[in-house]
Design goal:
Blueprint lengths: L1 H11 L2 H34 L4 E3 L3 E3 L2 E3 L2 E3 L2 E6 L10 E6 L5 H19 L5 H26 L8 H8 L4 H16 L1 H4 L4 H4 L11 H20 L10 H24 L13
Antiparallel strand pairs: 1-4, 2-3, 5-6
Amino acid sequence: MEYFTRLRKFWFQDRYALLWLLLAIPVMISFHSIVHEGTHSLMAFFSKGEFAKIEPFLMEYDGEFQNGMTVGVYVKETRRTKCDEKAAPETKNFLAGWIGWPQVGALLIIIAFSLLFIFLKITSFFFGSLWRIWFVAALGDFMFNTGKILLGICKPGQDWAKVMIQGNHDFGNFRWFTLLLWLIPLSHFVWVWWSKWGTDPLPERGFWGYRWVAFVLGVCASISLIFYAVVRDDDIGYTSAPYIIGLLLQIFSCIFFGVYFGLSFKHEEDQTSTPAT
């Protein structure tokens, strides 16, 4: 049972830690979309000397659900574009830069935070909370983008499937390769036993003790709203359910965290920590 105690302490040593982890999810979906699409844009710059336009939010793009798109900087090449390994290559425009870099980036974030959690005794409540939130976001990004391949599903429009298709990799071998990569995030259930946070978790705080975490999350939600306001593309379905729901989530998050931040100054007594159990 000691293992499950350490696992619990890592993720939610108290009910408010769990609550704030859940409250952060809508914001971090959009935030990590900025990281994901920004990586595509950066790779396009390295490839062609020009940043691609990023559209980092939930939407329907050209009739298909997307959690972000990167457009505008292309290379014209002849590559396979379909899941069928016998399909003939097509000559068309492809996004500049290797398409798999965002998954590599998410995996590197997962590895970096894993090492921090294993070897570093985290004493800063602010940084500890944000690191855990970002760890969850990176896990979600990596697993969402590679999970279909692991389940034996090839969706040609998804980044990780494009890595396989455009690289002319065998589906069976690529699926095994994806499983090996998944062992890295899944190793959490092993290294959590030695995690400093699992044995010596952050002190508990009351509901009003997350002032500066709320401030950062509010800033992230505001940045997402800026993208919603300025990005325009004829292929985006602005009246589609994903776009509207995503926009409303960011508006709600921005208002909630802003109001919470202001009200927290009236609850100074809950800003201090109490010993974890």
